[in-house]
Amino acid sequence: MIRIIGIGKLKEKATLALYEEYVKRISLYSKIETIEVPDMKIPDKVSDKEVIQILQKEGKAVLDKIKSDEYVILLDLHGKMMSSEAFAEHLENVFVRGKSTVTFVVGGSLGVSSELVERADLRFKMSDLTFPHQIVRVLLAEQIYRAYTIQKGITYHK
């Protein structure tokens, strides 16, 4: 099973439609669940202390959704980069090693709490570029779908 936990809602209709299309495609290969955790309101002038408090609250809300036996992949600007092929192989290996659920976590606009970083089994960096967290969810769903097509030898992956 694949779970994608994101902080905040996908609000743009086009972004949501594209995300849902990839979720539909993934569902041909795996059960998939999307969980949206409410993001905290960020004041216009936010202090470092307030940022930490917001991250901790959002992080706790995410951690409350993760079971102890899940393999957690945190989308992280400081994580490990890999090719689509390496990502597909890693995902397949996680399932082969007996994990029944892989949970991906996409943080909010401020990032993620240190507690989420500590819980992650893999910190995964998709790109050196910075993207809005809503777009990251679409890119992640596309890469998960691509991983399945690579594993199955389907011509989607080029």
Structure description:
By secondary structure, the chain is an alpha/beta fold. It has a single domain (2-152), classed as Alpha/beta knot (3-Layer(aba) Sandwich), CATH 3.40.1280. It has five helices and five strands, in the order βαβαβαβαβα. It has helices spanning 13-26, 48-63, 84-96, 114-119, 133-152, and strands at 2-7, 32-37, 71-80, 102-106, 122-124. Strands 2-1-4-3-5 form a five-stranded parallel sheet. α3 (84-96) links the parallel β3 and β4 (102-106). α1 (13-26) runs parallel beside α5 and α3 crosses α5 (133-152). The protein is globular. It starts with a strand and ends in a 6-residue tail after the last helix.
Number of strands: 5
- The total of helices stands at 5
Overall CATH class? Alpha Beta
Helix vs. strand class: alpha/beta
Distance between the termini: 25 Å
Name of the CATH architecture? 3-Layer(aba) Sandwich
Q: Which topology does CATH recognise?
A: Alpha/beta knot
H and E order: EHEHEHEHEH
Average pLDDT, rounded to a whole number, is 94
What's the shape? globular
Beta-strand fraction estimate: 15-25%
CATH superfamily: SPOUT methyltransferase, trefoil knot domain
Largest sheet: 5 strands, parallel
Radius of gyration: 15 Å
Parts with pLDDT < 50 across at least 5 consecutive residues: none
Domain unit count: 1
What is the share of helical residues? 40-55%
Q: In order across it, which strands form the biggest sheet?
A: 2-1-4-3-5
